Amino acid sequence: MKQPALSQTPGTLALRRDDAEQLAARFKLLSDPGRVQIVYALLESGELRVGEIAGTVEASESATSHQLRQLRLAGLVRANRVGREVRYRIADSHVRLLLDVAVEHYLHDHGDHR
Amino acid sequence: MKQPALSQTPGTLALRRDDAEQLAARFKLLSDPGRVQIVYALLESGELRVGEIAGTVEASESATSHQLRQLRLAGLVRANRVGREVRYRIADSHVRLLLDVAVEHYLHDHGDHR
DNA sequence: TGTACATATGAGCATATGTTCATGTATTGT
DNA sequence: ACAATACATGAACATATGCTCATATGTACA
User: Fold this and answer.
1) Rounded to two decimals, what is the model's pTM?
2) How far is A83 from chain B (nearest CA, A)?
3) To 5 degrees, how large is the angle CA B72–CA B40–CA B58?
4) Using the beta-carbon criterion (under 8 Å), do A5 and B103 form an inter-chain contact?
5) Where are the beta strands (DSSP E) in chain B?
6) Nearest Cα to B88, choosing from B65, B107, B59?
7) For tag attachment on chain A, is the N or C end more exposed, with fewer CB atoms within 10 Å?
8) What is the spatial distance, in angstroms and rounded to an integer, between the CA atom of A68 and the C1' atom of D26?
Protein backbone atom coordinates (compact mmCIF):
# COMPACT_ATOMS: atom_id res chain seq x y z
CA MET A 1 0.00 0.00 0.00
CA LYS A 2 1.00 3.57 -0.36
CA GLN A 3 0.81 6.38 2.09
CA PRO A 4 -1.69 9.09 1.27
CA ALA A 5 -0.26 11.50 -1.27
CA LEU A 6 -0.42 14.45 1.07
CA SER A 7 -1.26 14.63 4.71
CA GLN A 8 -4.97 15.18 4.70
CA THR A 9 -7.01 16.72 7.44
CA PRO A 10 -10.25 14.76 7.27
CA GLY A 11 -13.14 16.77 5.99
CA THR A 12 -11.15 19.30 4.05
CA LEU A 13 -9.34 19.26 0.77
CA ALA A 14 -7.07 22.08 1.80
CA LEU A 15 -3.35 21.76 1.81
CA ARG A 16 -2.01 21.53 5.34
CA ARG A 17 0.29 24.27 6.53
CA ASP A 18 2.99 21.69 6.96
CA ASP A 19 2.82 20.47 3.42
CA ALA A 20 2.52 23.99 2.06
CA GLU A 21 5.71 24.90 3.87
CA GLN A 22 7.59 21.97 2.39
CA LEU A 23 6.41 22.78 -1.09
CA ALA A 24 7.13 26.47 -0.68
CA ALA A 25 10.62 25.63 0.52
CA ARG A 26 11.26 23.73 -2.69
CA PHE A 27 10.06 26.61 -4.80
CA LYS A 28 12.07 29.04 -2.74
CA LEU A 29 15.24 27.31 -3.80
CA LEU A 30 14.47 28.25 -7.37
CA SER A 31 13.18 31.70 -6.52
CA ASP A 32 16.58 33.33 -6.94
CA PRO A 33 17.96 34.11 -10.42
CA GLY A 34 21.46 33.09 -9.40
CA ARG A 35 20.34 29.71 -8.15
CA VAL A 36 18.24 29.13 -11.24
CA GLN A 37 21.29 29.84 -13.37
CA ILE A 38 23.39 27.49 -11.29
CA VAL A 39 20.88 24.68 -11.52
CA TYR A 40 20.44 25.25 -15.21
CA ALA A 41 24.18 25.25 -15.81
CA LEU A 42 24.54 21.99 -13.91
CA LEU A 43 21.70 20.40 -15.82
CA GLU A 44 23.43 21.38 -19.06
CA SER A 45 26.94 20.45 -18.13
CA GLY A 46 26.46 17.54 -15.78
CA GLU A 47 29.27 18.51 -13.48
CA LEU A 48 31.07 21.79 -12.82
CA ARG A 49 33.65 23.23 -10.46
CA VAL A 50 32.66 26.09 -8.22
CA GLY A 51 34.91 28.46 -10.14
CA GLU A 52 33.32 27.51 -13.42
CA ILE A 53 29.87 28.00 -12.00
CA ALA A 54 30.79 31.39 -10.60
CA GLY A 55 32.16 32.35 -14.00
CA THR A 56 29.09 31.18 -15.88
CA VAL A 57 26.74 32.91 -13.53
CA GLU A 58 28.95 35.99 -13.33
CA ALA A 59 28.89 36.10 -9.57
CA SER A 60 31.69 36.09 -7.02
CA GLU A 61 32.99 32.73 -5.90
CA SER A 62 31.88 33.47 -2.38
CA ALA A 63 28.34 34.31 -3.38
CA THR A 64 28.26 31.22 -5.56
CA SER A 65 29.52 29.09 -2.72
CA HIS A 66 26.82 30.41 -0.44
CA GLN A 67 24.17 29.60 -3.03
CA LEU A 68 25.59 26.14 -3.60
CA ARG A 69 25.47 25.56 0.11
CA GLN A 70 21.75 26.17 0.17
CA LEU A 71 21.17 23.90 -2.76
CA ARG A 72 23.38 21.27 -1.15
CA LEU A 73 21.70 21.42 2.25
CA ALA A 74 18.37 21.02 0.51
CA GLY A 75 19.64 17.97 -1.33
CA LEU A 76 19.23 19.52 -4.73
CA VAL A 77 22.88 19.25 -5.65
CA ARG A 78 25.74 17.09 -4.46
CA ALA A 79 29.40 17.98 -4.12
CA ASN A 80 32.44 15.81 -4.48
CA ARG A 81 35.97 16.92 -3.96
CA VAL A 82 38.61 16.16 -6.57
CA GLY A 83 41.95 17.44 -5.43
CA ARG A 84 41.56 21.07 -4.53
CA GLU A 85 38.48 21.41 -6.63
CA VAL A 86 34.92 20.64 -5.62
CA ARG A 87 32.64 19.46 -8.34
CA TYR A 88 28.92 19.88 -8.14
CA ARG A 89 26.19 18.01 -9.88
CA ILE A 90 22.43 17.80 -9.70
CA ALA A 91 21.31 15.30 -7.09
CA ASP A 92 17.59 15.62 -7.48
CA SER A 93 16.05 13.95 -10.50
CA HIS A 94 12.92 16.01 -10.31
CA VAL A 95 14.52 19.40 -10.75
CA ARG A 96 14.90 19.06 -14.46
CA LEU A 97 11.21 18.49 -14.93
CA LEU A 98 10.35 21.31 -12.59
CA LEU A 99 12.53 23.72 -14.54
CA ASP A 100 11.23 22.46 -17.85
CA VAL A 101 7.66 23.03 -16.78
CA ALA A 102 8.55 26.50 -15.58
CA VAL A 103 10.22 27.31 -18.88
CA GLU A 104 7.08 26.31 -20.74
CA HIS A 105 5.13 28.37 -18.27
CA TYR A 106 7.37 31.33 -18.93
CA LEU A 107 7.27 31.02 -22.69
CA HIS A 108 3.53 30.81 -23.08
CA ASP A 109 2.16 33.43 -20.81
CA HIS A 110 4.06 36.46 -19.78
CA GLY A 111 3.18 40.09 -19.71
CA ASP A 112 1.61 42.49 -17.27
CA HIS A 113 -1.76 41.98 -15.73
CA ARG A 114 -4.16 44.30 -14.03
CA MET B 1 8.36 28.46 -37.37
CA LYS B 2 8.87 28.98 -33.71
CA GLN B 3 10.91 31.49 -31.83
CA PRO B 4 13.93 30.13 -29.99
CA ALA B 5 12.87 28.54 -26.73
CA LEU B 6 14.96 30.84 -24.59
CA SER B 7 16.98 33.88 -25.48
CA GLN B 8 20.32 32.40 -26.30
CA THR B 9 23.63 34.21 -26.22
CA PRO B 10 25.47 32.60 -29.10
CA GLY B 11 28.34 30.41 -28.01
CA THR B 12 27.02 29.57 -24.59
CA LEU B 13 24.37 27.28 -23.27
CA ALA B 14 23.98 29.25 -20.11
CA LEU B 15 20.70 30.75 -19.07
CA ARG B 16 20.72 34.50 -19.56
CA ARG B 17 20.28 36.64 -16.49
CA ASP B 18 17.11 37.97 -17.98
CA ASP B 19 15.53 34.59 -18.42
CA ALA B 20 16.73 33.43 -15.03
CA GLU B 21 15.03 36.41 -13.46
CA GLN B 22 11.75 35.65 -15.19
CA LEU B 23 11.86 32.04 -14.13
CA ALA B 24 12.87 32.88 -10.58
CA ALA B 25 10.00 35.34 -10.37
CA ARG B 26 7.57 32.56 -11.23
CA PHE B 27 9.00 30.29 -8.58
CA LYS B 28 9.02 33.11 -6.09
CA LEU B 29 5.26 33.34 -6.35
CA LEU B 30 5.04 29.81 -5.02
CA SER B 31 7.81 30.26 -2.47
CA ASP B 32 5.43 31.31 0.28
CA PRO B 33 3.34 28.74 2.18
CA GLY B 34 0.34 31.02 2.23
CA ARG B 35 0.38 31.55 -1.50
CA VAL B 36 0.85 27.85 -2.13
CA GLN B 37 -2.20 27.16 0.01
CA ILE B 38 -4.19 29.79 -1.84
CA VAL B 39 -3.27 28.41 -5.24
CA TYR B 40 -3.96 24.88 -4.10
CA ALA B 41 -7.33 25.85 -2.70
CA LEU B 42 -8.28 27.55 -5.94
CA LEU B 43 -7.18 24.57 -7.98
CA GLU B 44 -9.37 22.37 -5.81
CA SER B 45 -12.41 24.59 -5.66
CA GLY B 46 -12.32 26.36 -8.97
CA GLU B 47 -13.53 29.66 -7.59
CA LEU B 48 -13.51 31.16 -4.11
CA ARG B 49 -14.31 34.43 -2.38
CA VAL B 50 -11.57 36.26 -0.56
CA GLY B 51 -13.18 35.53 2.77
CA GLU B 52 -13.36 31.83 2.01
CA ILE B 53 -9.75 31.77 0.99
CA ALA B 54 -8.69 33.59 4.14
CA GLY B 55 -10.66 31.08 6.17
CA THR B 56 -9.17 28.09 4.44
CA VAL B 57 -5.65 29.38 4.75
CA GLU B 58 -6.25 30.62 8.28
CA ALA B 59 -4.87 34.04 7.58
CA SER B 60 -6.37 37.50 8.00
CA GLU B 61 -8.39 38.85 5.12
CA SER B 62 -5.91 41.65 4.73
CA ALA B 63 -2.92 39.37 4.49
CA THR B 64 -4.83 37.17 2.09
CA SER B 65 -5.77 40.15 -0.02
CA HIS B 66 -2.15 41.22 -0.22
CA GLN B 67 -1.13 37.76 -1.34
CA LEU B 68 -3.90 37.60 -3.89
CA ARG B 69 -2.76 40.92 -5.24
CA GLN B 70 0.68 39.52 -5.98
CA LEU B 71 -0.77 36.47 -7.66
CA ARG B 72 -3.12 38.69 -9.62
CA LEU B 73 -0.45 41.14 -10.78
CA ALA B 74 1.61 38.19 -11.92
CA GLY B 75 -1.34 36.86 -13.89
CA LEU B 76 -1.56 33.67 -11.93
CA VAL B 77 -5.09 34.28 -10.72
CA ARG B 78 -7.95 36.39 -11.96
CA ALA B 79 -10.59 38.23 -9.98
CA ASN B 80 -14.15 39.04 -10.83
CA ARG B 81 -16.53 40.98 -8.70
CA VAL B 82 -20.00 39.61 -7.97
CA GLY B 83 -21.94 42.06 -5.87
CA ARG B 84 -19.83 42.90 -2.88
CA GLU B 85 -17.82 39.77 -3.19
CA VAL B 86 -14.74 39.23 -5.30
CA ARG B 87 -14.21 35.76 -6.63
CA TYR B 88 -10.82 34.47 -7.55
CA ARG B 89 -9.86 31.68 -9.86
CA ILE B 90 -6.68 30.31 -11.39
CA ALA B 91 -5.82 32.12 -14.60
CA ASP B 92 -2.68 30.27 -15.52
CA SER B 93 -3.11 26.83 -16.96
CA HIS B 94 0.44 25.82 -16.19
CA VAL B 95 0.27 26.27 -12.46
CA ARG B 96 -1.48 23.02 -11.86
CA LEU B 97 1.24 21.07 -13.57
CA LEU B 98 3.92 23.01 -11.75
CA LEU B 99 2.36 22.25 -8.39
CA ASP B 100 1.81 18.61 -9.31
CA VAL B 101 5.42 18.19 -10.24
CA ALA B 102 6.49 19.83 -7.02
CA VAL B 103 4.25 17.54 -5.01
CA GLU B 104 5.86 14.51 -6.63
CA HIS B 105 9.19 16.11 -5.93
CA TYR B 106 8.26 16.58 -2.32
CA LEU B 107 6.90 13.09 -1.85
CA HIS B 108 9.84 11.21 -3.28
CA ASP B 109 12.86 12.84 -1.86
CA HIS B 110 12.85 14.71 1.37
CA GLY B 111 15.04 14.65 4.37
CA ASP B 112 18.21 16.34 5.52
CA HIS B 113 21.41 16.34 3.57
CA ARG B 114 25.00 16.93 4.47
C1' DT C 1 57.11 23.02 6.51
C1' DG C 2 55.65 26.85 3.92
C1' DT C 3 53.09 28.84 0.16
C1' DA C 4 49.66 28.99 -3.23
C1' DC C 5 45.20 27.60 -4.84
C1' DA C 6 40.21 26.30 -4.47
C1' DT C 7 36.40 26.48 -1.79
C1' DA C 8 33.69 27.17 2.67
C1' DT C 9 31.92 29.81 6.20
C1' DG C 10 30.73 33.52 9.64
C1' DA C 11 29.69 38.38 10.58
C1' DG C 12 27.82 42.47 9.13
C1' DC C 13 24.92 45.07 6.29
C1' DA C 14 21.56 46.65 2.82
C1' DT C 15 17.45 45.32 0.76
C1' DA C 16 13.31 42.48 0.17
C1' DT C 17 9.23 40.24 2.08
C1' DG C 18 5.04 39.43 4.70
C1' DT C 19 2.22 40.91 8.40
C1' DT C 20 -0.69 44.08 10.96
C1' DC C 21 -3.22 48.22 11.54
C1' DA C 22 -5.62 52.03 9.77
C1' DT C 23 -8.05 53.73 6.13
C1' DG C 24 -10.10 53.81 1.41
C1' DT C 25 -13.40 52.10 -2.16
C1' DA C 26 -17.31 49.52 -4.00
C1' DT C 27 -21.84 47.55 -3.34
C1' DT C 28 -26.08 46.38 -0.96
C1' DG C 29 -29.91 47.24 2.03
C1' DT C 30 -32.76 50.44 4.95
C1' DA D 1 -28.40 59.44 2.52
C1' DC D 2 -26.55 56.28 5.88
C1' DA D 3 -24.86 52.19 7.75
C1' DA D 4 -23.07 47.68 6.98
C1' DT D 5 -20.46 44.32 4.34
C1' DA D 6 -16.54 42.76 1.52
C1' DC D 7 -12.40 43.68 -0.15
C1' DA D 8 -8.10 46.63 -1.39
C1' DT D 9 -4.36 49.35 -0.29
C1' DG D 10 -0.64 52.13 2.00
C1' DA D 11 2.50 52.79 5.86
C1' DA D 12 5.16 50.92 9.37
C1' DC D 13 7.66 47.31 11.25
C1' DA D 14 9.90 42.86 12.19
C1' DT D 15 12.19 39.22 9.98
C1' DA D 16 14.44 36.94 6.09
C1' DT D 17 17.60 36.97 2.27
C1' DG D 18 21.77 37.50 -0.39
C1' DC D 19 25.80 39.95 -0.89
C1' DT D 20 30.65 41.38 0.50
C1' DC D 21 34.63 41.09 3.22
C1' DA D 22 37.58 38.72 6.22
C1' DT D 23 39.01 34.44 7.67
C1' DA D 24 39.13 29.33 7.96
C1' DT D 25 39.71 24.78 5.85
C1' DG D 26 41.56 21.42 2.74
C1' DT D 27 44.81 20.03 -0.89
C1' DA D 28 48.99 20.18 -3.82
C1' DC D 29 53.56 21.15 -4.58
C1' DA D 30 58.28 23.04 -3.70
Assistant:
1) 0.89
2) 20
3) 85
4) yes
5) 48-49, 77-82, 85-90
6) B65
7) N
8) 18
